Amino acid sequence: MTTPCTTEPVLRSLADFDRNSGSLLERALFNHRYWVLLICLLITALLGWQVTHLRLNASFENMIPNDHPYIVNYLENRKQLSGLGNAVRIAVENKSGSIYDAYYLEQLQKLNDQVYLLPGVDRAYMKSLWTPATRWVGVTEDGLEGGPVIPDSYNGDVASLTALKRNVERSNEIGQLVAFDQRSSILYVPLLTTTADGQPLDYTEFSRQLESLRQQYQSESIGIHITGFAKVVGDLIDGLRQILLFFAAALIITTAVLYWFTRCLRSTLLVVSCSLVAVIWQLGLLPMLGYQLDPYSVLVPFLVFAIGMSHGAQKMNGIMQDIGRGVHKQVAARYTFRRLFLAGLTALLCDAVGFGVLMIIKIQVIQNLAVIASIGVAVLIFTNLILLPILLSFLGVSKSAALRSLKSEQVAEAGGKKHSVWLFLDLFTQRKWATVGVVVAGMLAIGGYLASMHLKIGDLDAGAPELRADSRYNKDNGFMTGHYGASSDVFAIMVKTPVGACSHYDTLRRVDNLDWQLRGLQGVDTTNSLALLNRRVLVGLSEGSPKWYELLNNQATLNMVTAGAPRGLYNEDCSLLTLYGYLSDHKADTLSRVVDTVQAFARDNNSDQAQFLLAAGNAGIEAATNIVVKQASHEMLWWVYGAVILLCLVTFHSWRAVLCAVLPLVLTSILCEALMVALGIGVKVATLPVIALGVGIGVDYALYVMSIVLARLRQGESLSQAYYHALLFTGKVVMLTGMTLAIGVGTWVLSPIKFQADMGILLAFMFVWNMAGALILLPALAYFLLPVSRREGAGQIAGKSTDIDTTPSTAAPRREIYKKFPEMVNEH
């Protein structure tokens, strides 16, 4: 009597087992089981202690593609760009009146002073009504005059408030620092990358300090609204506790379903425990290697847990079935290790490749995610492929659960009716249903591809798409957009000139032409530049006559206006101009229109005297990020699939088997992109990794099914027989883990963090479709790609032809011929 899928004998006594059989790795592990357990225990204790040193933070610099030409331009001129890039905007609203109120201005001043002293604030470029850099310019009988909007003589009386109102109206800040309805004003707070002590800015702590200030100043008469990258990250981190609750729910669901399947508490707890140990090892290694979690990689530990559950359930099921046949628990563990280690290792390597290929995307946060995920997959090789079988070799499984695992097989062997699900799936090994499966898959692929052509790069919603539309942050962003003409989405174009030449007429004329083009674009609310300031000042010098709204070709006048212009429009040595475009949103289409317009203008107008460079401002940086993501999105998939195909080819030694395993993954990738279009999810830093991860995770299912199918085919069975044995051995676990993990991550749709909800939908979709592909499309493809194998007693094995006679009379001799194939069981 032999075990399924192998030629190994059923050994009821450990004394009958040859301890020196199996591979060198197997002997090294199972003949020294106590040492393996001790080493794993010590590593778990050490890394568990290291987890306490793990930090959760984010970095603005890690979110941007530092090697992209736009970002290189920004970083080269960063010190001269008035804090453009990472900034926070705090709108202080007077709910019961206008900003020209003594109490309101007193509260604004106190808040301004406290924010000014916060660690990480770039104080030189902070701006509000109370900062000296906020100035007014006016035309009087004596010529141009100006000064701070709130002068030193301000004392809060009626005369001071009247003068303040006049200064604000002459400052050109209405719509920028002051709302159109003049009921609120903004504190513009640019941030540094590090604090005064040289430490990276702690966004969690900074967001907490902002919230503390909100609580301190917000009242029935004063409203506080805060936007900016630091606040988005802070809100995401604040939502981490709720994210952990959903992780816990997913863990409980997977544990409960696994126990329902096995009816064995000890083996269920072992599988869950080994998967959690993998997460502990992963998180413990991060601080040792100098990494920390951020809101975008915080989902990775659950992916590692999910992958571990999938592999662990396969190992547990194999051992359980062998014990049910009477095999000693230690021998059963070694048999399962032999059968599934290579398939599991290949699957984990494919997972690692799926994560590792993200390194080609030159955005640090994605590269960090790739490293963190690869570490998690690496530890799974030890915890779920090695530690779990060894633990089960000690503890085994309950006898009743072991016998129950063979129920379907025993019924079939006794001539009973197969389970209806197995009967249905077996239909796809026959011509009619195989044809239907392949045709339907082809139609889905075509339809999905046509839909995926509408997939957008970047954000498709205003505000912070990572958060719900009704979140406090997005409500604050809505307030900013509705009350200010100069939105928080700033696209800045840098104009490089020779030193002292930024005010030359020819340069300003070109800036003015680009300014007019941008103003005509959909999605651009307004602009600001030195050329535009010259036009406005000339009107002021001409008694307000709109006839003089012109850029005067008089260098003396241009130099005069430039001398009194805000320094944010040009730098100290007059070698860099900045043209600001204030956008209505940062949606992908809006950014694309602006980028295309500026690029076309730069091609036609760049010269030695003026070079138009992209891009600064948060919208400019996001445009560069979108470009990098777009370039990497398809390149990444080519690399992922190339590596997966290579690994499968090494494992199966058959290009036909590789196609059977990979084509279902391709279909899932196409349909996933179509789903993103349907749900209005764009490809961006937060979502790009999921597409690659789906390939790596999905190949696990195909590898476990195909490895058993090939092993049975090489023993002379038909495709139907081979597939049926694969269903009984690994297929039912594929179905179990696919549905269970889909349900687990499906609960994320209830998360208040929209980013997590979107990831839950996409992951659940990929879990289900990869499972369906492995159980339905794989055998259908095998019918056509392994054509001889569909006949009883086939003479072609996994794409390798033989000269065996396939008539029924040769069935017995065929068994002897198959013995010539070297150690097929150990290979699979």
In short:
The protein has 828 residues and is α+β, with helices and mostly antiparallel strands. It has helices at residues 24-30, 33-51, 69-76, 102-116, 158-170, 203-217, 229-238, 240-262, 265-288, 300-324, 329-356, 364-395, 399-404, 407-413, 420-426, 431-452, 472-483, 505-519, 530-541, 555-563, 588-605, 617-652, 655-679, 688-713, 719-746, 754-785, 811-818, 824-827; strands at 87-94, 135-140, 143-148, 184-190, 222-228, 489-496, 524-528, 576-583, 611-616, 796-797, 800-801. A hairpin with a 2-residue loop joins strand 2 (135-140) and strand 3 (143-148).
In terms of topology, how is this protein built?
Blueprint lengths: L23 H7 L2 H19 L17 H8 L10 E8 L7 H15 L18 E6 L2 E6 L9 H13 L13 E7 L12 H15 L4 E7 H10 L1 H23 L2 H24 L11 H25 L4 H28 L7 H32 L3 H6 L2 H7 L6 H7 L4 H22 L19 H12 L5 E8 L8 H15 L4 E5 L1 H12 L13 H9 L12 E8 L4 H18 L5 E6 H36 L2 H25 L8 H26 L5 H28 L7 H32 L10 E2 L2 E2 L9 H8 L5 H4 L1
Antiparallel strand pairs: 1-4, 1-5, 2-3, 6-8, 6-9, 7-8, 10-11
Helix pairs in contact: 2-9, 2-12, 6-7, 8-9, 8-10, 8-25, 9-10, 9-12, 10-11, 10-12, 10-25, 11-12, 11-22, 11-24, 16-23, 16-26, 18-21, 21-22, 22-23, 22-24, 23-24, 23-26, 24-25, 24-26, 25-26
